[in-house]
Sequence to fold (125 residues):
Amino acid sequence: MAMSGSANRGNERGPRPGSPVRGSATGRPMMAALDLFGRRWVLRIIWELRNGPLGFRALQKNCDGMSSSVLDQRLRELNDARIVEQSEDGLYLLTKLGDDVYRSLKPLIAWSHRWARELSDSPGE
Fold:
């Protein structure tokens, strides 16, 4: 499942700043990021790679068995965005930008725990 050297198949290239994306005809950087991160499985892939490289099958298994075609597409988009790269031995890992994304998510992770506590402390409706 190497990402380099493959033929460009349709919509492999993901959203990029400066190009029209969902929600922005001008491709403002934040809108391009929201478009990319709003795609199904993208944040989960980043989450699963946070602790280090994984092979395709291990990543697919960690992502609750998502289809191989969707995983391949998302990895291509994340590679194009320079968030994920593939090592010479075929493992997928976060790039420096990918690590930056994960670190940027840490406040959201903390918020999600506060949210869960808040919801579990309030009476059900």
